[in-house]
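pls design
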C-alpha cells in the first residue's frame, strides 16, 4: 500500500467523522442532506481502503511514494488555484455567492485556457443547478454579501 493513499483514506475518515459530529448539532430537519453526503463520502473512502487491501495481495507493507507524488507538482498552478479560492471567499463576503462564483469560475477557466464557449456553458449550467438544488429544493440560504444587502 502506498503511504500517500493510506494518508488520504485516514484523513477522509477523520474528516467524515468530524463533520458527522458537527451535523448532529444541526436541527433534525437540516441533518438529512449532510448525513447523506457524509455517508456517501465514508462509503467511497471505505471502498478505496478495501481496494487497497485487496490489491496489496497479502503484502500489507506501507511503501513511501513521496518522490512520485510530488514529481509533477506545479507550484504556479497550485498557488493560483489557492489564491483564487481565497479570493472567492473574500468576494463572496462582499458581493454574495452567485456573483463571486461566476467571477471565480470564469477566472479559473480563463487561467486554464478553456474555450469561451465551454466557459459560458459551464457557468450557466452550474449556476442553474446550484440555484435549483440549493436555493429551491433544499432552501439553503446562500450568502448575499454586504454590498447586495445594503442595496436590497
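designed seq:
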Amino acid at each position: 500500500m502506498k503511504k500517500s493513499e493510506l494518508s488520504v483514506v485516514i484523513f477522509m475518515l477523520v474528516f467524515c467523522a468530524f463533520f458527522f459530529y458537527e451535523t448532529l448539532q444541526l436541527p433534525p430537519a437540516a441533518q438529512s442532506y449532510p448525513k447523506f453526503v457524509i455517508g456517501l463520502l465514508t462509503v467511497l473512502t471505505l471502498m478505496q481502503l478495501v481496494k487497497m487491501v485487496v490489491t496489496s495481495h497479502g503484502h500489507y507493507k506501507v511503501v513511501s511514494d513521496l518522490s512520485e507524488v510530488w514529481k509533477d507538482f506545479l507550484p504556479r498552478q497550485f498557488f493560483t488555484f489557492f489564491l483564487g479560492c481565497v479570493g472567492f471567499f473574500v468576494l463572496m463576503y462582499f458581493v454574495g455567492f452567485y456573483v463571486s462564483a461566476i467571477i471565480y469560475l470564469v477566472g479559473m477557466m480563463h487561467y486554464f485556457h478553456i474555450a469561451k464557449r465551454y466557459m459560458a456553458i459551464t457557468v450557466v449550467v452550474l449556476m442553474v443547478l446550484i440555484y435549483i438544488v440549493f436555493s429551491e429544493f433544499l432552501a439553503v440560504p446562500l450568502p448575499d454579501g454586504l454590498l447586495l444587502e445594503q442595496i436590497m
